[in-house]
Amino acid sequence: MNEMREVEVAVIGAGQAGLAAAYHLRRTGFEPERDFVVLDHSPGPGGAWQFRWPSLTYGRVHGMHALPGRELTGADPARPSSEVIAEYFTDYEHAFDLRVRRPVDVTAVREGANGRLLVESSDGTWATKALINATGTWDRPFWPRYPGQENFRGRQFHTARYPGPQAFAGLRVVVVGGGASGTQHLLELAPYAAATTWVTRRPPVFREGPFDEDAGRAAVALVEERVRQGLPPKSVVSVTGLPLNDAIRQGLADGVLDRLPMFDRITPDGVEWKDGRRVSADVILWATGFRPTVDHLAPLRLREPGGGIRVEGTRAVVDPRVHLVGYGPSASTIGANRAGRAAVRDIRRLIAEPAGVPAAA
Description:
Elements: E1 4-12, H1 16-27, E2 36-39, H2 81-95, E3 106-111, E4 117-121, E5 124-133, E6 155-158, E7 172-176, H3 180-189, E8 195-200, E9 206-207, H4 213-228, H5 237-240, E10 242-243, H6 246-254, E11 259-261, E12 265-267, E13 270-272, E14 278-280, E15 283-286, E16 311-312, E17 315-316, E18 322-324, H7 333-352
Parallel strand pairs: 1-2, 1-5, 5-18, 6-15, 7-8, 7-15, 8-11, 9-10
Antiparallel strand pairs: 3-4, 4-5, 12-13, 13-14, 16-17
Helix pairs in contact: 1-7
């Protein structure tokens, strides 16, 4: 499509961060379709949650924070989280009349005329004064590369396409990754698999005791500092450690969470280390995380030499018209809510101020 339309604000992504931003735009007087537009590439509401594996029930979801203005209540903890949260997001979009356009693929954001940004998409081009990028990470699973990987005769999965524990029945499985997903996968599939092996680049850090607000703020500050320096963001869990709950304790006691250092190469029938140790495997499951989905922003040249986008609050330092929510320190569900509100506040100031005249503090 070649149609060009103008809006004050374009929101890319309708997961937690995008919906939070849209809510605050609506609440502060912006009208959907007239003043702002929300573009989402997914087939339906639910953000990345709609793609989670069926065995991840709502009761096992850690740290799901409600969207602003509408609580999620009465959900059956035994239902798949993909269903529960997709229904919640659907209800939320309707309740606040956010009019999300989907499925829409955004291909590029580039400089336009008269100080506007051009958002090029499968739904046409949108000329906008400000952009809220809320594209998350789910679409960029990180697959490490190791010698011999292409010759492995078994199957390789990433968390993004994890099929559930039954798919590993009777198989020898190597799980790679020391984050929450890696431990969850191990504990879940171990009763089905013939054997499991856990490998990580660094020894896992298990966190004792409650994770209070002070600890949370300290962890977010560490992630925020990387983003401020223009380095690629790390996940919050990388600085918080893994909570030592009953399931983790049992896994440690049973030997399921006996960790080995990262292997050095992949063989046709398994993995091996430089010291000669070998483990046979039918499956390698890469629980190695995700990277921010920001390639469509490449024409704006926002990346720093360190590989990340330098951000102050939610605002890209190189271009104050661009806000990244759900990026780095705001990647948690509660962080995304706060970032959406902060981005809208800054954008209102940006739009209100005359060209070249800074707004009052």
